[in-house]
Amino acid sequence: MRNDELLNKILEKLPELSGVDHDVKTVEATPDRKLGKKLGVSFPKKPGKKMRVFTFRRNVTYGESVAEKITRVTIDEEGLILKVTQSK
């Protein structure tokens, strides 16, 4: 899927992020071969799963102070949201 399609999926689930500036990074998740060796299992030699991490940054006002709130959304190529993290 393209970045704009993935972004629309994110905004369906998290509408409060619409209009917020964001960055996109592509990452590849591969099995930890060292851990597999330690556990005595082997992983198939196929390419890792490609995911994109969208990082949204916005300023939030708490009383008289202003803080930056960061939201990271990890989404796979099929549009499945895997993880959402937010700063306090």
Task: Write a structural description.
With about 90 residues, the chain is α+β, with helices and mostly antiparallel strands. Helices cover about 20% and strands about 45% of the residues. The chain has two helices and four strands, in the order αβαβββ. It has helices at about 5-15, 35-40; strands at about 20-30, 50-60, 65-75, 80-85. It has a four-stranded antiparallel β-sheet, covered by helices on one side. Strand 3 (about 65-75) and strand 4 (about 80-85) form a beta hairpin. The longest helix is centred in the first third of the chain and has 11 residues, at about 5-15. The model has no long low-confidence stretch (mean pLDDT about 90).
Give a nutshell description of this structure.
With 88 residues, the protein is an alpha+beta fold. It is built from two helices and four strands; from the N terminus they run αβαβββ.
**Outline:** elongated
Number of β-strand runs: 4
The strand order across the widest sheet is 1-2-3-4
- Percent range of helical residues: 10-25%
End-to-end Cα distance: 31 Å
Major pleated sheet: 4 strands, antiparallel
Helix/strand class: alpha+beta
Give the topology.
Blueprint: H1 3-13, E1 22-29, H2 33-39, E2 49-62, E3 65-76, E4 81-86
Antiparallel strand pairs: 1-2, 2-3, 3-4
